[in-house]
């Protein structure tokens, strides 16, 4: 007798996959709408932006701080304008200076935090003992703490070292952040010990084992950590606001956090420019990011 259960099971599974695909597509569209609106609105004139979103961006003291009128979400400008980009890139160099401030803060953090994390993670993955386990547990606890918890101690230490109002007050604590150490330690611990033992039998030194065996196997995890560190510190706001009193030294992320009704059009253009480095880094390293996070270096236990 012919049964229809396999066919019904296949049909139900196909229907479920189609439903999940639709849900994922709708979620992706909803997620992308703010980004698309930011890009489109950056090509609008300030007058058009005020006409469409003036109520949304009104100040708190304004009687229209709540949205009482209909907001006009437009995906096509009435007239394409490059005035915002002209102001940001040519007329007002202060925005490019703030962009450069972001680079000067983020790039050293990414480089030095990755370097420290790679060597620290290698030590945690290779060394054994109760003390090592305790130290790694402390790293995990520190990673679970939000930055606001450690902000006051960091400020007090930076003040004692006379680092307040300098980039070092932000860079030094970030270099020793436990997040990258945790991720890379987990990746390195997934490398079979037989690899290390074989290298030892061949007479390889510890440094040679690290450079020729360990690092190549966790390369994708290292690159994924670089991307995550860059995105995290590229968008930082609290640290510069607390540790840098001079607004001239603030990164561009601080400006974007202080949007007011007079700078809305400029903010859209600045936001688009500010997204470019993160998008380029993500698009270039998307494959490494997924592989590094999913497979922890491509070695399964």
In short:
The protein has 301 residues and is mainly α.
Spell out the key features of this protein.
single chain, 301 residues, mainly alpha, 0% strand, globular, disordered C terminus
DSSP E strands, number: 0
The biggest beta sheet is recorded as: none
Q: Look at the helices and sheets and give the structural class.
A: mainly alpha
Order of helices and strands: HHHHHHHHHHHHHH
| Radius of gyration computed on alpha carbons | 25 Å
Strand content: under 5%
Q: Which stretches are low in confidence, meaning pLDDT under 50 for 5 or more residues running? A: 63-68, 296-301
Oligomeric category: single chain
- Name the average pLDDT: 80
Give the CA-based shape: globular
Report the helical percentage. over 70%
